Amino acid sequence: MTLKRPKGTQDIVPGIINKWKTVEGIASSAAEQFGFREIRTPVFEETSLYVRSVGDTSDVVTKEMYTVSSKGSDTFTLRPEGTAGVIRAMLENGIMNEGFPQKVYYIIPCYRHEKPQAGRYREFRQFGVEMAGSASPYADAEIILLAASVLDGCGLENVSLHLNSIGCPDCRAKYREALREYFEPHRSELCPTCNERLEKNPMRLLDCKSPICKEIAKDAPVITDYLCDDCRAHFEKLKSILDGYEIKYTVDPKIVRGLDYYTRTVFEFISEDIGAQGTVCGGGRYDGLISELGGQPTPALGFGMGLERLIMTMEAAGCEFEPAKTPDLYIAPMGEKAQEKAALLCDAVRRAGYAAEFDLIGRGLKPQMRYADKVKAKFVCVLGDNELESGQAKLKNMRTGEETPVELTDFISVFNSLLINEVFGNGFEDEFSDILSGMQSAPEEPKE
Ligand code: HAM
Hints:
Elements: H1 17-33, E1 37-38, E2 44-46, H2 47-53, H3 59-63, E3 67-69, E4 75-78, H4 83-92, E5 102-111, E6 123-132, H5 137-153, E7 159-165, H6 169-183, H7 192-200, H8 211-217, H9 229-244, E8 250-251, E9 263-271, E10 279-285, H10 289-292, E11 300-306, H11 307-316, E12 329-333, H12 336-351, E13 356-358, H13 365-374, E14 379-383, H14 385-390, E15 392-397, E16 403-407, H15 411-424, H16 428-431, H17 433-439
Helix pairs in contact: 1-5, 5-9
This protein binds histidyl-adenosine monophosphate.
C-alpha cells in the first residue's frame, strides 16, 4: 500500500521551495519596513478561543475546525486562522501593556476542513499582520498599503481591492433587522443553513454560495445605508486617505467576511486569474475582539494573505521567483586520496562563506560532471592523482567554460577572486578591493 498525503494538503518539495522563499521574503521584509515584528504562536489552541473570536455562526467554527480532545475534558483545535491566537498571545505575554500601537506579523500554516479545490486547501499557509491600539483610519490605510506593497513586490498588478464598512454593533443591529425583514418573505426558498442564519446572524446570508440564496440576496439592503455617523466618517476618511495614496479600490457592500469579529472596515484583494477561489488577501478591523478575549477595550485590525493563492496568482501572471541557491563550487575527486583532499578543500571553502559540495558516492568523472551541471555549480574542480602530485588543479567556470590554474595551497584566495568577478562582473574585485578587504576576513587555506 502506498502512503499518501492527506486530502487537501500539499508537499512543498525542494524543486519549488524557491517560490515559497520568494513570497515569504517579500512579505516579511515589507512587514518589517512598516514596523511590524514577527510573532510565533502554537499551532493548536483551546477550542473555546476560536468559538469566542471567530464566532459560533461562522462556517469556520461550525463546520471546518479540526478539533481533538486530549486527556481530561480539554479540547484543542488546529489553528484555522491567525488572529485569535496572536491576540491571545499578545494579551498573555503583556504585549498590550508595552504601549501602542503594537504591530506583529506571522507566516503560519492554518487548517480548515473544507472541500478541497483549486486554491482551497485543508492545510494552507497565511502571511498575516495584526495591529492593536489605533482607531485612526490612517491605521486602516496603513495595513491596506502594506498588503498592496506585498502584492506589488511580488510583481502583481491585477489584484483588485474591494472595500466595505460593516459598521459597529450599533449600526449593525439596525442593519440586521432590515435584513431579517427583507429575507423573511423568502424563508421557504432559502437553504436550510440560511434559515438558521436568519435567526442567528442574517449578515451571513450575504456570504452564501447557493445560487438561489445568492439570487435572493442580490437586492438585499446594503450596510453602507445603515452606518452611524461615526462609522460613516471613519469610512469616508479611509477612502480619502487611499485616494491620496492613489490606491484603486471598489466599494463592495457585499463584502461581509466569513469571521464574526469584524467591525467597520473590511477588505479583500481579489485576483481574476486563479478561478473561483480568487481572494488572495482578506482583513479588516475588529475593535471588539480584544475585550471579548479578556483585554481592555482596544481597537485593532489586520489581514491574512493566502500564500498558495499568492503563488498561483504570480504563476498565472508570469511573475519571476528568486532562483534556487546553487553551489558555488563542486569538487570532483577521482579516488580515495583525492576525496580526502576534496573534503578538506570543501570545508575551507564553506568556512570562507561559500556553498560547496564534493562527491560522496564514488562516481566516475562523467556522472560527476553531469551532477555538477544539474545542480548548476558555478565552478568545478577535478582532483585526481596528477593534481595531488603536482599540487596544481584547474577551476572551471561552468558558464564560460574558462579554466584557471590554481595552486592547491592557494586555492581559497584564487577561488574567492574568481567567484567575486563571476558574480559581480569582471574588474569588480580590483575596483572595490579596499571595501572587500575591509568586509572579508582573510580566507583560511585548508590544512595540508
Ligand atoms: P480569511 O479571509 O479567512 O481571514 O483568510 C485570509 C486568506 O487566507 C484568504 O483571503 C485566502 O487567501 C486564504 N485562505 C483562507 N482559507 C483558505 C483555504 N482553505 N485554502 C487556501 N487559502 C485559504 C482570516 O483568516 C483572518 N484571520 C484575516 C485577518 C487578520 N483579519 C484581521 N486580521
